[in-house]
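dumping this here before i forget
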Amino acid sequence: MRVLGVNSVFHDPAAALVVDGVVVAAAEEERFSRRKHGKRPVPFSAWEQPAMAARWCLHQAGLTPADIDLIGFSYDPALVRPAADMGLDDPWDYLRTVYATHAPEFLAEELPGLDPARARFVRHHVAHAASAGLAAGPPECAVLVCDGRGEQDSFLAGRYDGGQLEILATQPLPHSLGLLYEDLTAHLGFLRSSDEYKVMALASYGEPRFLDQLRERVRPVPGGFRTDPVDWDQLASARLPGGELTGAHADLAASVQRRLEEVLLALAAELHERTGDRVLALAGGTALNCVANTVLHERGPFERIWVQPAAGDAGTALGAALQIAADKGEPAWSMTGAGLGRGFSDAEIETALRTARVPFERPSDLAAAVAGVLADDGVVAWFQGRSEYGPRALGHRSLLAHPGRRANLDRLNDVKGREKFRPVAPMVLADRAPAIFSRGPLPSPYMLFVHDVAPDWRDRIPAVVHVDGTARVQTVDPETQPLVAALLTAFEARTGLPVLVNTSLNTAGRPMVDGISEALECFGSTPVDALAIGPFLLRRRELR
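structure:
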């Protein structure tokens, strides 16, 4: 059976294709449209059909739109209640519901031959749950979904058994941990539904001195939680975008982050008491909060925490397709890597380089050549294999640098146009990680947990150590990422350091580089020393 999954409501429009229970391709529309998170001017800021992503997914499988058996949309307009009845002030609620109702016809207009009668609407949080629970590996696992909102809820707890979801609890709106975090993001002068990860990074600079006040407003209850309105200005004054970040802002971020962790721990404890499962699968935008994930790993009752790399709304395209496939009796699928997006052949890359008339070489040992650039303190744009599904750069579309020089943190933030307080991440071979990183789970292939950096390593790899002594680690398995593993080995042979700095290949406000032309544009417009694209290497000095 061929199932096309679609997310086209709220933000991060995406498409995923599942054939006979196996995910063939998954991609976010932003990688094609070049509009980050699919954002358009209000009110149509998130109402976008992922037509380009869907078209590419079909092409990847050699299918046409008419070949699709079922289409899963990760939002069910039939479940929506009026915003006022849910305690929300949402002037676009009615239009969103109308749009979602007609989404199958809108997508069919973009993909001639696609039959809108084959569309099925999957409850938003069920799609989130499936994106993790049906890809977690074991046939039985608990699942916890937490985000801003779905049709009428903000939270789901349940368990998967043999591909079928049993829903154990939901949290009706307006109570929402995700919306609470979004409100804080906006109060601190960042972009709502986009920059929440910046608040998480800022929290490490503060102390949770507003925690008692927040505990009065945000509290767990049996089967869910309550989030009463917070008067943010009573705690810390609002910050205008681009304005100065104060200690009070950092303390407020730290307080909300801590309260989020406490409530999630309570929810996980209640779920474990009901299921007794060993594995907890997380999904929803809150599951991208790697600090909270680590607290659940360290202090929660489950033996293993599983988070898939596209845990936000983009992942609901994958979840909708997997859930429909499971409902039809398709075999289970186990995620082994995030490289589900576009890739290019060596011939395609070489043709593009020759067309661009840029000098390039084809080293006999690309890993050794790039390791030499990095050992000499060069910054390398790394473009290899199929692009990542989700917001994390995982060795497919990355910027790499030497971790041993503290100045490289500021250097990379300058290259990308990012705030100075934001950290960059370490990449390390899985078998070397335990000697350097602790507390968070290892291996950690999707960079969704934080780890303590061993004291004797903090001065050796200062570029990847956050202000609180932690790092958001990506471990590399030589079997699944042999070229990245070879690069790490070659770099260690030159420097004695088994770690590289890894951050996403993009600049501020722009989606991660996905295609060849964007890679060349990024290389040409930023102070990057080399571009390793497929088997080819471009050096900055040769462009002068």
